Amino acid sequence: MFKCDLCILEHGAEWLDSASAPKSEEELAVHLESEHHMPTARQGETMEECKRRFLKLYPEAQILETCKCPDCRVIRLNRDLMRAIVRPMTITSSILLWLIAILLVQLVAECVWGGPVLS
Ligand SMILES: [Zn+2]
Ligand SMILES: [Zn+2]
Fold this sequence. Notes:
The chain is mainly alpha-helical. The chain has a domain at 5-68. It has helices at residues 5-11, 25-36, 47-57, 70-113. The mean pLDDT is 90. The structure holds zinc ion (2 copies). One zinc ion (ZN) binds next to helix 4.
């Protein structure tokens, strides 16, 4: 059976019966390169030749945004996750900074003029 573990992981075992599932070793090699951007050495091909042929066929695999390989997908996922966490954090901290600034102004006003000026 020429199965793609990545696709089974993503779509479930029933994916094997679909038309896009590879039916031969050659089809699996094409599938891995076109669908997952994973260079797969053909018969009589060195890894060096394989990489050169692969990059000529799929130049988009050199760019993080367009590469479909599992590594790049994980990197993009982590980056998006970090952005989703960091952005609300910076908003919260700037609100906190404003609150501290207002409190400081109130405090200074109290010391200098003997009463709050901002309320
Ligand atoms: Zn696949
Ligand atoms: Zn990649």
